[in-house]
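To the wet lab folks,

You asked to see what we're planning to order before we commit. Fair enough. Below is the target structure as tokens, and below that is the sequence we designed to fit it. If anything looks off to you, flag it before the synthesis order goes out.
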């Protein structure tokens, strides 16, 4: 099953770290494919939680930031799970089907979320949680020509639908959205069919892309991840995840704090991209002159230099701000994945 998939990937030049294909030895080609073609990235190491039962939408509605009660089968959304004080736990993609909701979680969060959600199921709740991570493969198609590729493999019916919408054809569930700011699709595939589906997509001219390129893209585009940008130190408004928050859905865990921050302009720091002139260490203090204004949370090196993500105090400024991080300087820039409260 998954081993067959990895055998195909290894034959194509993949190198692995803990069963994750880190690179296919073609990082430059994969980046080019994202810009002018289509790349395929194996995200099978991400978590998948299946939520079933008659109360599943109401339950998830009460547990995270987005409005689940408005969703119908065939639709989906991104949502953030937060603590009672609105500190971020994970950014999750939800897929609503006829009889379940599939939650695609970050790789290091699905077990924690499974335990957390289980604690909030009360005796009368008609909700069941199942970890189907090991039974599922996840592939992302990323790039300008993603529409052409899904047409080649018989999935053209999904083209033009809103982000989060999805279709099930031949046991492959295809959802609009790549998981990044770049256009694309996410395919949820039974593990036993993973090798066959991967092979058919590559044969349709998708360029295999390893996790190293995914990490480069997610930093340059601004997608926050747990343990770096999503921690107990930050809330979803600070993390630039305004698009995942419903302000008129009623009560949910962390709702009062988020509503208060939004109403009273209480966001004291924001996540930004930082174009750096040299290397810096994650966790380094961001300075403007002699003043500490934030912290660097991620950094990546590419053929165009170094790029980072970091939280910067609102009063210090935003795009265009020149900062000092360790021994190097940088310029604060907008990144396309994030949306923030207007100040």
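Sequence we intend to order:
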């Amino acid at each position: 099953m998954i081993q067959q998939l990895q055998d195909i990937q290894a034959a194509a030049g993949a190198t692995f770290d803990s069963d994750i294909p880190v690179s296919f030895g073609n990082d430059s080609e994969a980046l080019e494919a994202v810009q002018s073609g289509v790349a395929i990235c194996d995200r099978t190491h991400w978590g998948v939680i299946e939520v079933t039962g008659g109360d599943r939408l109401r339950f998830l509605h009460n547990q995270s930031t987005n409005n689940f009660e408005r969703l119908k089968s065939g639709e989906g959304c991104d949502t953030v799970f937060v603590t009672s004080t609105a500190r971020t736990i994970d950014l999750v993609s939800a897929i609503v089907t006829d009889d379940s909701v599939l939650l695609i979680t970050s790789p290091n969060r699905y077990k924690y979320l499974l335990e957390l959600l289980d604690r909030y199921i009360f005796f009368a709740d008609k909700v069941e949680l199942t970890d189907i991570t090991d039974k599922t493969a996840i592939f992302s198609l990323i790039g300008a020509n993603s529409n052409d590729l899904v047409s080649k493999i018989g999935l053209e019916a999904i083209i033009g639908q809103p982000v989060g919408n999805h279709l099930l054809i031949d046991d492959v569930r295809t959802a609009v959205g790549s998981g990044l700011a770049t256009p694309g699709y996410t395919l949820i595939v039974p593990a036993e069919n993973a090798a066959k589906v991967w092979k058919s997509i590559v044969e349709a001219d998708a360029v295999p892309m390893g996790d190293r390129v995914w990490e480069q893209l997610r930093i340059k585009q601004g997608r926050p991840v747990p343990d770096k940008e999503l921690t107990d130190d930050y809330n979803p408004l600070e993390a630039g995840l305004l698009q995942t928050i419903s302000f008129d859905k009623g009560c949910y865990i962390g709702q009062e704090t988020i509503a208060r921050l939004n109403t009273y302009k209480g966001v004291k720091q924001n996540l930004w991209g930082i174009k750096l002139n040299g290397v810096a260490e994650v966790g380094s203090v961001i300075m403007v002159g002699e003043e500490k204004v934030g912290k660097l949370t991620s950094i990546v090196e590419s053929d165009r230099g170094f790029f980072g993500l970091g939280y910067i105090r609102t009063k210090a400024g935003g795009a265009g701000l020149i900062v000092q991080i360790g021994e190097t300087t940088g310029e604060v820039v907008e990144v396309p994945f994030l949306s923030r409260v207007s100040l």
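Structural context that might help your review: Helices lie at 2-11, 27-36, 56-63, 110-119, 146-152, 194-203, 211-221, 255-263. The mean pLDDT is 96.

Thanks,
Computational group
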